[in-house]
Amino acid sequence: MPRAKWVVASLTVVLLSTGIAVLQRTEGARPAAVTTDDALPTRALGLSGHRRLVRELEQSGGHVTGAGARSPRTAGPLRTVTGPLRAARPLRLRIPSLGVDVPLTGDREEAAWDTEGPAPGAAGTAVVTGEGLRLGELRQGRTIEIARADSRTAVFTVVRVSPGRSSGHEDPAGRAQLRLVGGETAVLARLTGQRRSR
Residues 6 or more apart from 132 whose CB is under 8 A from it? Predict the structure, then answer.
């Protein structure tokens, strides 16, 4: 018998013997439980990380209600408001379209809330001033956000951008509004929504 055929025959015998031995050992044994982490389709679809995260949240007492569920630390969904919010101390000013995110520290070089008027989100027109906010670049329909001490963010929608420090005609005190003044530009915005702060 040529050497190559002898090697092939030997390997075949070894593989068959190993296969028979494995079958004999597992015969009558209960099949191993398949977990979501080990399931081939899950790994093939790249879902094992998602499944693992869901399991970890369940074990830690977190609650997941399906795709898109938010962890408690992330901002909640935007909710439309029909009236003013309760008064709460403002903490931060955010203008997403301008990339502005500054604390309302009382320092007019950044942004300051006029404490003699209503709090942003409460009934009336709250006044916030700040330098270097590029308010002239704001457009009607853009949003301004004020994070507050009550773990809510008041969301205002711009209705008017005016040159000078006056934003023109303002609505009666029962409506929650924001007058944002920076440099020689004044912006009037109305409260249109709220969300849970981070």
Answer: 109, 182, 183
